Amino acid sequence: MRWSCFKPWRRSPSASVKSTVVEEMGKLSSLSPDHDQEPGKKPFSSADNNNNKDREGSSSPRFREFTLEELSVATEGFSASNIVSEHNEKVPNIVYEGTLNDGKKIAIKRFQKLSWPDASEFIEEAQAVGKCRSQYMVSLVGCCSEGQERLLVAEFMPNGTLAKHLFHWEKRPMKWDMRLKVAVHTAKALEYCNDMGIDLYHDLNTYRILFDKAGNPRLSCFGLMKCIREGKSYSTNLAFAPPEYLRQGIVIPESSLFSFGTLLLDLMSGKHIPPNHALDLFRGKNYLVLMDSALDGQLSDDDRTELIHLASRCLKTEPEGRPSLKLLLSALSGLKTVKGENTPAPSYNKTSTKQPSRLTPLGEACSRMDLGGIHELLEKLGYGEDDVAVTNEFSFQMWTGDMQENADYKKHGDAAFRAKDFETAIEFYTEFMSGAPAVSPTVLTRRCLCYLMSDMFSEALSDAMQAQVVSPECSTPLYLQAACLLKLGMEAEAKEALQHGSALEAF
After folding, report:
1. Annotated catalytic residue: which of 203, 212, 386, 463?
2. 17 vs 8: CA distance, rounded Å
3. pTM over 0.90
4. Is 218 exposed, middle or buried (0-12, 13-18, 19+ CB in 10 A)?
5. Given strand 149-155, what is the order of strands in its sheet?
6. Is there a catalytic annotation at residue 203?
7. Residue 42 pLDDT greater than 60, yes or no
8. Residue 350 pLDDT > 60, yes or no?
9. Going from the N-terminus, what domains does the chain have, and what CATH number goes with each?
10. Is the separation of the CB atoms in 469 and 239 below 8 Å?
11. Is 5 helix (H, G, I), strand (E, B) or coil?
12. Whose CA is closest to 74, among 93, 95, 100?
């Protein structure tokens, strides 16, 4: 089974930060932008890197090779307490916060063992990314390749991710001018990378955008390298992956534009809405539902309409229908911020303690991996409104006599499901779906549970994902994905799926 992580991204003076923001940021633990080379380490980069300047005018840290011992000491032996990513010690490709001997902080991404079998390829690609120096990006300052270990080292951004401040704010929601700044900086970062010859960015999402000590958004450099040398390009929920990745398992430069569209959805709504659901709202002209009520009065109706138009174009199914980065930047630059508003990122000085929405009984059962409870709840749910269209089409074909045999497969599958004969249910549901006129999300969710009961966790996850694609407005597939991910030992992704399901119900 393929698993998901995204690769694309100019440099110009950033807007000045107001003194009140600088004072607020100055109270926080932060990383000085000028990292010097440690004695005895030969830099990989050429001399042109010495003249690079970051957004505050200081020399950028020179790209160099670190030893595994250095990074182990910096992270207290890769301690779980130093993990700063949305992953944990059981999940590959973990990001740690580290402190070098000179007191400078770094972020370290540790790849799953054997992710990059060829050390020279890993170092070569890391060097290429290390040459990227832009005020809109987090700089890659080094790497490590020893034995089977592959690690990347970047500047440390002390003020958290966009996901934290957009979805889990504590004091106040993010204002429109900062959301617009995030969109513009991200587009400029992608344009810069394109100019540097790197036209793929892997898995662009709100966790890939971080805030520096002055509260400015920067795009993570880690997304410029794949999770593994062959293949895997997405680590987030596949419901947010570009259509070409779902169809063919590939990413192309235009894939980043699709992901930028999902970012615009997040910024305008303050929620993580699946693209399919958003497109349904676009088609139904339910624009007000898409907009975060906290933005009322902060942008004009014309700008709101333009933003929705941009997002819908980015989310086009066919890559050639998506706008270029140049067009996106031109359109975003034409959007206005409210005069007199400050532009700080919200509430950096405290970690949010806001709890996710309360889970439904099904969500609770999935979070506990209570498969018996899930079975009972799916039985009670039956075939709901999500299958009305399937049933109508199916009934017509039954009337013509063309689908009676297939109807029997479904009937026998349901009987086996009720009797908890899960292997038989899998067999009949599979036969039913092979000849059904339309995909039934309920049959998919039922077969998903049958696979879970049969310890076929990858197959179960595949069914849950397909059910979400067919019925993006329904939370059940997301909750089932969480149960599957927990069975696969992917606790961070499971937590995210639960949060998405809960948010979708609240939405």
Report:
1. 203
2. 27
3. no
4. buried
5. 64-65, 140-146, 149-155, 105-110, 94-99
6. yes
7. no
8. no
9. 31-155 (3.30.200.20), 163-209+227-333 (1.10.510.10), 361-506 (1.25.40.10)
10. yes
11. coil
12. 100
